[in-house]
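Comment thread on ticket #2218

A.B. wrote:
> Attaching the input chain for the structure job we discussed in standup.
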Amino acid sequence: MTPLLNQTEVTPVSFILNGIPGLEDMQGWISFPFCSMYVVAVVGNCGLLYLICYEDSLHRSMYYFLAMLSLTDLVMCTAAIPKTLCIFWFHLKDIGFDECLVQMFFIHTFTGMESGVLMLMALDRYVAICYPLRYSAILTNAVIAKAGLATFLRAVLLIIPLIFITKELPYCRGTMIHHTYCDQLSVAKLSCGNIKVNIIYGLMVALLIGGFDILCITVSYTMILRAVVSLSSADARQKAFSTCTAHICAIVFSYSPAFFCFFFNRFGGHTIPPSCHIIVANIYLLLPPTMNPIVYGVKTKQIRDCVIRILSGSRDTKSHSV
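C.D. wrote:
> Ran it. Output below, let me know if you need it in another format.
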């Protein structure tokens, strides 16, 4: 009986997602803004994907990258939020061990994909502003498809080892995960083994994805700023800056909660309440998918025109190509 007991302790059948510790009585109220944001995210991103797919005027590289961002946002928030709402509403806290690993894979892969797509969009704005006459020649459909595939494969190939490292850990510190979803560090902390490899590799992944992407975004916008400042016309400068506004907002919505979660996990464990961290971690998965369609819908004239045309009942999309 002893070997069987030890094996059960090493590989649990399931975990229990405890939700937000310390705020159990308020989780019903917290669920309403979470649910509202999730509905807006699904409707908004599905709407953007529909517009980009069926409107000829949006068949351009900028909108193809936006479609990648919308699809990434949909998968990222759907991987976690429905389960979170089930915990809040129905107290369905059990999650199978393999199901937990699958959820972990999708969340971490598509948060990495989100960062990569934002980097590609920054490069797109760089080419559009600094090389406007060669824009279509440089960013062909083939280049866009290869860039998107490379970004996805980068995230997958970096996250898969992290999942296997977590899977092979021995678990003997209970099955209660103090989180609303299977975050890699929250799961690893239940292990009685050495998790230094998880911590170091997780840090490497964050630097290879987030650090590299932020560097590329910074360089791109530095070159954009230099090009825009050199323009002689104030109207031209304003128009050039306005094309970047929505993307800058998307960067802020994505990286602000990401930075908080990253630094909390590594440096703020004893000073910030865990409930605060978990709420921000959920906002990290909800805020970009919720706000990106709104920002791009408000700030992008072509998308506004398409929405107005559809709402007004016009079906002539080809005559409005840009």
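A.B. wrote:
> Thanks. Noting for the ticket: The longest strand covers residues 14-17.
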